[in-house]
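Q: Sequence in, structure out?
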Amino acid sequence: MQNLPPLALSVRQPWAWAILHGGKVIENRSAGSIRAGRMDCRTIALHASTGMKEAEYRWGAWRLTQHGVRCPRPDELVRGAIIGQVDVVDIVSESDSEWFGGQMGLVLENPVACDPIPAQGALGYFKWSAAGDLAPTAPWMQNWDRPNGDHLTGDLFDAAPAIDMPPKKPFRIK
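A: Exactly. Output:
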């Protein structure tokens, strides 16, 4: 992809992936973060942030299954890079969308993925430039859903893991 927008928004995984590939049409934010980040309607680059804790991934993967979307394994999710672009077409404080769940939401359309471009993220809309390397894969990501936690077992099961009860939603200090 050429001519990526100069401004980007950093989104934690697996949500950045879901915007591009899973039909996530609203990115939830607080009213304060939208104001402070000078967010408005425009085409932006999408940055997958470097951070992703196991509890965040577990809850996100479960949440995506509620929308009929199977999330990639955590070690397959790119982090620390521009991964595409999307149009922000509205900013709403209420919505009937199943993806809305915050104070405010950026309404997204026309997601287009690109080959990952390593870049550092920042809060709000930020001017990005290619720099650095992709975020390294943590041991918990490599061992995710593997019996005995090793790579010798291989992918014995193609089905998504069954979860009877939703995992606890992780709490992040903002």
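The longest strand covers residues 104-118.
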